[in-house]
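Standup notes
- DV: blocked on the single-chain target, sequence here:
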Amino acid sequence: MNKLLKIFVLLLVPVFAASAHEAHVHGIAQINIGTGDDNELYIEIDGPLANYISFEHNPETKQEIEEYNNFIRSVPGKLFSDQLFKVNSEANCFVKSFDNDVDIEDGHADYELEITYKCTNIDKLESIDVRLFEQFPSLNTLKGQIVNENSQSAFELNREKNIINLKGR
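- DV (later): unblocked, structure below
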């Protein structure tokens, strides 16, 4: 396990445990950002599926199945065309890998998206323009953390404040 991953796990386990006990609130999602000495940027999003589509249970009708499938199929295209996140260009980051998952339990569904960016100039990483609010009108707030080898800080984003400043953190 690389050094950043160990730090990330140790620092965020208490946060995830606390989040798991918080109310399932539509319109709000958790975002976690991590960087390390491996020239990679990690972004993780976790929140109610209803933030992204019009329901949060197993798709039952033909319309729900189509909406769900369209959403899941659209994520890679939006991710690779900077429609979800735009990292400042000087860092020269590109999507290395991603995983998205829907977890349905007790009638509530959560959507999780994990992205790894490879950056050729990680030392020039300054900001992330979070464009999720433009793509998903039901998403109103992102509560997040940035974790790196030197620090940990919390932040909150919304439609008016959607840029994460990574310098000075």
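- Follow-up: Residues 3-21 form the longest helix (19 residues).
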